[in-house]
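Intended use. Records like the one below are meant for learning the mapping from a protein sequence to its folded structure. Do not use them to infer anything beyond what is encoded.
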Amino acid sequence: MIFEKYDIIVVGAGHAGCEAAAAAANLGNRVLLVTMDLRLFASMSCNPAMGGIAKGQIVREVDALGGYSGLVSDATMIQFRMLNKSKGPAMWSPRCQSDKAMFSAEWRRRLEQVKGLDFWQDSVDALLFEGDRVCGVHTFMGGDIHAKAVILTNGTFLNGLIHIGEMHFSGGRIGEPSSHGLSDQLKERGFEVKRLKTGTPMRIDGRTIDFSKLTEQPGDEEVTGFSYMPHPRLLHQRSCYIARTSQKVHDILRKGFQYSPMFTGRIQGVGPRYCPSIEDKIERFSDKDSHQLFVEPEGWTTQEFYLNGFSSSLPDYIQYEALQAIVGFEHAKIFRPGYAIEYDYFPPDQLHHSLETRSVHGLFFAGQINGTTGYEEAACQGLMAGINAHLLLHDEAPWVLSRSEAYIGVLIDDLITKGVDEPYRMFTSRAEYRILLRQDNADARLTERAYQLGLASEERYAHYVQKKSRVEAIKELLATTSVKPEQINGFLEANGTSPIEQRAKLSMILLRPQLHLFDLVRAIDFLAQQFDLTDPFVNECLEEAEILVKYDGYITKEYDLADKLNRLEYVKLPLDFDYHSLHSLSFEAREKLNKYHPQTLGQASRISGISPADISVLAIFLGR
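Structure written out for the chain above:
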């Protein structure tokens, strides 16, 4: 087989691989995407959903940067909810249920429209090297394919091993072969390789579920979606449902513990703490006699349902018996059992913040290969790897987002400086600057930079500029417009807040926690005449303007804090310095600093085992 030489080869077409390939090709590179199955682009191998707590913010950031995950999610969603709406806007997180089959098909449709992107269905079993540089891949069928850079996004396929009770067999996902060769080759070159574990629940035949016994969970009436670009709005939705386990269910599951690969030690990999299997939850939370489950449809037309919260690697007959003990599932049938999967990953402290490996020039890792879990975490890593592979080929500095700029920056910095000993999942609590990193303002934080880079399109940038101008105009209107008591007191009293005695600026009235800008617009005639509340773009601008007015003090304070800490963040450290020669540092600090060689003082401060006293020593050493 004869191939042209590519600029970049992306291995794997999961969420990381799809974003990496799209970004690299859209930046003008000749890209080859190699995958074992061209039918399964960005396959939703676990739950059929995108977004969620902190994850929704990541999808919006990917979209603001010109990635595709938000657009694909909006085009294929079957339900939308904005989570945490009862809390402050820093916690609001968009989430959607997706049509699983449509999601993959839409990804393929969009990727096939990307100029400069080729596809090859095959398995990569080795990398090609020239000294300390990667120069291509070797595939099972195609032989050697050459490139200037390679991005590995292998997901759970590297030496993947599936467990169901006492049975185990090779696989990257059930029904799909695992990938062999790469882990061993990279281990021989000095890479550290470890094992992690994840799992998935059984899939259930919805025709056999008694939904009348479950609690319905409909979508939101107002559907905003993920993408900042104009897109069709969801007009009708499919409901999810809530079920619960019971002590009877737990007792049945316990009968299978003696066969559980997790409890018998056959699974060596560490599982996700924040998404445990049902048997793990029963063991860890033995005082609870019930756990909540979410029953989620996998598409518009299919009767396949996903039982979120019931992940298991117990024998299939135990899973089935326990399922039928859940109220509403007495006569349920399953399409396939749940299973656990073990796979190889490479501890991410072996990477630069660009996601290029430290020991091999031009080789990038993105997604679960770095120890993360979740479609969203994978997608953003793929996007950044694609960007930085492009910049490397053009001898430009890496593009690294800071912790105060994006959840993406938090995620990658956590991976590189703190490492991973269990599957990493993003939470809002991981971000120091949550008020700055809201889901509503990802475009304000990132789109202009992405446009300068060449990734965000002219259309996207123009839309962002229009929104920015409209939001500023609304803020100015609120700050300069006063209302008389007779114009607004009836509205204020109806909303449980005290009337005004003299003219007051709208911006001051809006500070009251009982009031929202949408309600003010509806209540005051001259405002109602200026804003069309049936226009989604108008509503988006009004919402962001309200947040900026209401939380101005908090936002300013957090910007000031970020600015102070950024003075340390960007103090450069010498990359080739021998920290053992700096005897004022603790022994652990010297060991860790020589291992990771952080690029800045800020990165050094986040390495586990580096104390504030060590940072002071480094600051003095640098003349700070």
